[in-house]
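quick one, two chains, predict together pls
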Amino acid sequence: MFAIVPLTGLLAMQGCVQTTQEEFREANTGIGEDQIIAILRRSSLMGHNTEQAFIDCVTDRTSKGRDGIDVISNQEFMDAFFPWFEARYAPTDIDELKKISRNNKIKDRLESLGIRYLVWIDGSTKRENQNGSVQCAVATGGIPACFGFLSWRAESIYEAVIWDVERNISVGKLSAESKGMSFVPAVVIPIPFIARTQSSACASLVDQLKEFIEDGQE
Amino acid sequence: MKSMFSKVIVYWSVRATCLSALFILWGCASGAHVIPSVSIPSPLIDSFPKTVGVYYSTELKDDIFEEEKKRQKYVIELGSNHEQVFDSSLNGLFEKVVTLDSLDPVSETVDGIFIPEIQGVTLATPAVTGQDYYEVLIRYSIRLIEPNGDEIHRWIVPGYGKVNRRDYGSVMERTSDALQQATENALRDASSQIIANFSPGSRPLAVSVWLGL
């Protein structure tokens, strides 16, 4: 019985997560066998930056599975089009994309790589309403012990704006919002219950994205 | 048997509690000593039909940024990264680029000479700002002169890079990795600005005249 407690503590059990998603379609979609999508991080110089881990998660999951879509990663895309899509110069709306697409070098590179859609990911995970504390100390005999209760609320809000570079139009917007409560009760041994909101938002956004692009009729 | 069982329980309890206690120490950060190694991609631009020289001073080549913040020491060995920024940017912008050992006398036949200088580096860490970001700002001053020494133009280029601390571990923050990536982002940003400074909309008149446009 006592042996189970520390092992349970190690598992860092999952807290409850609630995810909601939204879709806004502006045009029909579809993708050819030789076409790929670029998953890009919308970063701003002075504002927040979407976590790289989230971008990696979306990139990885989108390209996997039976319904996987070929993806060029953010870094590969940025390197291939340097410096046109760097944070300082990246097009922020479809009209700006139209402008830079007039550049033959950019146009040719988009065609040669077979890029059909640009998927701009924006958002972040925030930890708020942290309450309580857990204090750990080494007791007599050299055995460490923790006591207390720590809780916080995590909120992951992300959106994906999808541009069709073949038609130079915006085809839609997807969003995923995951909320969850994490808590760590500690009576000698702390047992964390972590709400994995970011992972949940990633899974939700990827499912939406695949469906949106592959089965998209207006 | 019972005693051995108790020992196993105590052993695992100690290990599990230590590990769990470690998990609670969210965001413990320390100073860092980093040696960035930026890689600037070839720019997707047409180059100008000019041969230019670039002169790197010893101060620029050996540049090391050092700062102490909240009793944590941060060291960034920038040195050769500056050369990488200018070599890549200028090689994309111009047909031929030669590195000059000295400015006087100019032995190579060049149409113009670039002299980059470092004006300063600013570092901001989450521990100081209370934000989620490691931020690095590298300010360059870049002079473009005629081979006879006359100044054509001087640019101030602030290369800015930041990374989200959440990408570098919530348990034991990898401060060095975060700082290195923020620095490399700043160097890359500087390169993109150097290139953009030659675009028709941003190019100063004196530079257009020098380019013959």
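The radius of gyration of chain B is 24 Å.
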